[in-house]
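Thread: adenosine-5'-triphosphate complex, take 2
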Amino acid sequence: MLEIKNVWKTFNKGTVNEKQALCGVNLTLNDGDFCTVIGGNGAGKSTTLNAIAGVWPVDCGQILIDGKDISALPEHKRAPYLGRVFQDPMTGTVADMEIIENLAIAARRGKKRGLSWGVKADERFRYRQMLAEFDLGLEDRMSSKVGLLSGGQRQAITLLMATIKKPKLLLLDEHTAALDPKTAAKVLELSDKIIAENNLTALMVTHNMHDAITHGNRLIMMSDGKIILNISGEEKKNLTVEHLLEMFEKASGSKIENDRMLLSKDK
Ligand SMILES: Nc1ncnc2c1ncn2[C@@H]1O[C@H](COP(=O)(O)OP(=O)(O)OP(=O)(O)O)[C@@H](O)[C@H]1O
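Output below.
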């Protein structure tokens, strides 16, 4: 489904700030794989997601979705394949618009404005049902402006917007990191549910080792722009934080230096 083949990315080439952020990344995800991505500070996790989304061109290598090479496509032409949720709850939604308007915009992504732009009763009913499943009371607030919602509620709406058109690939970039632990757990539960119910393929960057272990069927660990661990199947199911730390130290030859990751290891 997703194939990343020998992708390299250098920032600020030829300057004192030159940084080789991706060094020959290779990754294949099958349909329905839910892969968590963990690693130290500056390991290349967000850069990998940006490379897939086409935020900038990569130096070399290929990115394929369902066998189609999207490496040369600009960001807006990759958007139909992708759904993305960022860390900041403010980024995915339009604060001044109602919940229902935000959802309607997401559902019409890629379509030309026309007579069908108004929200019909059956569409309203569908959104109401989707929101009711979240169990956050949002189904009774469909006409509320999104700016009035809490960070967790807003992130739940962003998640729904990112998946409403069933993207080929869902990119979650530390999407619960700005939330309090209880809300983060709720948004993760919603993410699991949406991914499973729609059989989505997903990549989720997290600094929380416990979350990386307990969610998804795959786990990759990055260090210095490379994937140093790629775990799946029974090995993923039986993984513990201690084991993961040991494997990281063995594979990278160093101790983990990401404070946030270490802080989250006992949760
Ligand atoms: N647009 C950019 N311009 C210059 N350097 C960048 C850019 N984006 C990322 N980098 C650098 O590339 C390296 C990898 O960054 P990236 O954001 O992918 O790390 P990360 O694994 O997501 O880390 P963190 O957990 O700290 O967010 C870092 O050294 C970062 O400073």
